[in-house]
Design a protein that fits this description.
Helices cover about 5% and strands about 40% of the residues. The chain is mainly β and about 250 residues long. The strands form seven sheets. Strands 4, 5, 8, 9 and 10 form a five-stranded antiparallel beta sheet that branches. The protein has a five-stranded mixed beta sheet with strand order 16-17-14-12-19, with no helix packed on it. Bound molecules: 2-acetamido-2-deoxy-beta-D-glucopyranose (5 copies). This is Cell adhesion molecule CEACAM5-like isoform X2.
Length: about 250
């Protein structure tokens, strides 16, 4: 084979190779389609029209992603579990096969919004005494009103339910006859069927109770009455008078 024939063969091979890979521009589809809320799971799928058995390469903000715990790649899909605001950015992909690769896909911008925040308010907001009724109210910063509320305490990890002691009524947890054992941290979470599905609890409230009775001082003074000699015939039962005082 002459050198010109070899050159032609190499040219043919490279044209075939290019036809096999280059010219395929993948597209990236994202689910969910609209903005992602923190904590949600997002799938980015690299769609290549022709051929199969590609291996996929993903990039975020010019950095090639490794398929580690936070960015597992399963075939054509990159999954982000528990999305954080730091996952916001530009994503793109390409397919690799043998020695070749596809073009890079268009860049897709993933925006991650904070899930609505929930906080807890306590009434009465001043000192709460043991035996009193306390209301904890869940406040969710959101335009949606169709939340169902869940209550938690650091004393056990299960959701608090209405029973004799607790009453859960919409956004309010009522503790009747608060006891020292009710002291601790309380937080709430809202759930709904539409996205955003869940609120994020940004702070827990610390419920502390006071004993209703503070220090008491009891004092008494005994005074002996003066005897009147004129009326000595009828003796009073006692000539002592006791004055006493309780000071809170
Ligand atoms: C993401 O993809 C996985 C499988 O690859 C699927 O089980 C899951 O439901 C998908 N989640 C979303 C939000 O599309
Ligand atoms: C607690 O909330 C209930 C209704 O949810 C209300 O009737 C009661 O007055 C409230 N008590 C306090 C101490 O805020
Ligand atoms: C969250 O909202 C989506 C969209 O409405 C719904 O399909 C999904 O079942 C919801 N998930 C939960 C856990 O409620
Ligand atoms: C809550 O109260 C406990 C005991 O009173 C205290 O040790 C703890 O630091 C408090 N936590 C917060 C977040 O204020
Ligand atoms: C009255 O007081 C005196 C001492 O001040 C005491 O000895 C006496 O027992 C008292 N009388 C009565 C009836 O309490």
């Amino acid at each position: 084979m002459g050198s010109s024939a070899l050159a032609l063969l190499l040219l043919l091979i490279s044209i075939l190779h290019a036809g096999f890979t280059r010219g395929h521009k993948p597209t990236v589809t994202v689910t969910p389609v609209s903005a992602v809320f923190t904590g949600e799971t997002v799938n980015l799928t690299c769609v290549i029209e022709s051929y199969s058995d590609w291996t996929y390469e993903w990039y975020k903000d010019y950095i090639k992603l490794q398929s580690d715990g936070h960015y597992p790649v399963n075939r054509d899909t990159l999954t982000i579990r528990g999305a954080a605001e730091s996952d916001q950015g530009q994503y793109w992909c390409r397919g690799l096969k043998n020695e070749g690769s596809t073009d890079y896909s268009e860049v897709v911008h993933l925006s991650v919004k904070a899930s609505p925040r929930s906080t807890v308010t306590v009434t009465p907001d001043s000192a709460v005494f043991t035996g009193e009724t306390v209301n904890l109210t869940c406040v969710i910063e959101s335009d949606h009103s169709d939340w169902t509320y869940e209550w938690y305490t650091d004393r056990n990890s299960v959701k608090l339910q209405s029973d004799g002691h607790y009453t859960v009524n919409r956004d309010t947890l009522t503790i009747r006859g608060a006891a020292e054992s009710d002291q601790g941290q309380y937080w709430c979470r809202g759930q709904r069927s539409e996205r955003p599905n869940s609120s994020q609890s940004t702070s827990a409230v610390n419920l502390s109770l006071k004993e209703p009775v503070s220090d008491v001082t009891y004092s008494e003074v005994v005074v002996k009455k003066q005897q009147s000699m004129d009326k000595a015939d009828i003796m009073p039962e006692s000539t002592n008078v006791t004055y006493s005082e309780i000071r809170y």
